[in-house]
Amino acid sequence: MVEKARRAKVEESRPDADPAWEILARDEADDPPRYVGTVRAADAEAAHEEATRLFCWYAHEVWVCPAREIRKFSADAEEETELAVPESGTEGRTHEL
């Protein structure tokens, strides 16, 4: 039997002046998007420009996502942290490791 992962929401502060943007890209129109990195910029256009310069020179498409809108869940959370999925919940497994 596979043990269910115990993930909890992780709160991270981002004290820098410019917000962080997570960057995804795909090289061809039919490729799946892939995560390529993070940049800091004042707005989406500046984030796109920086991401293109650093990661996505030849990408067919580039997504810039505000990091503050992304929620992180981790199996490495502290024991006293509220779990994202209750222990009694049903979370199906797609594969066993």
TrEMBL record:
InterPro entries per record: CHP04031_Htur1727 (IPR023976), PaaB (IPR009359), PaaB_sf (IPR038693)
Superkingdom of the source species: Archaea
Ranges where the record places region Disordered: 76-97
Any Pfam family: PaaB
Protein name: Htur_1727 family rSAM-partnered candidate RiPP
